[in-house]
Amino acid sequence: MNKARRKAIEDIRSKVEALKADIEALRNEEQEYLDNMPESLQGGERATMAEEAVENLDNAVEGLEEAASSLDEAAV
What we know:
The chain is mostly helical. The protein has helices at about 5-35, 45-75. It has one domain (about 5-75). The longest helix has about 35 residues, at about 5-35. The radius of gyration is 17 Å and the shape is rod-shaped.
């Protein structure tokens, strides 16, 4: 791989890392919302939706981690 393509991959990887950080921040906010939810609401629809959101955001982070790893391997 030439230097220009390697640099392009590094730039994309940086963007992936920035997206991952943004998603992690949202995930943490949603988890905090869920953790601080009044006990009377914890079994309700809002709690279920928040739990699903946290899980989906976790999945998104994992996907971006895999993408970053693949980009690292491609730049070798």
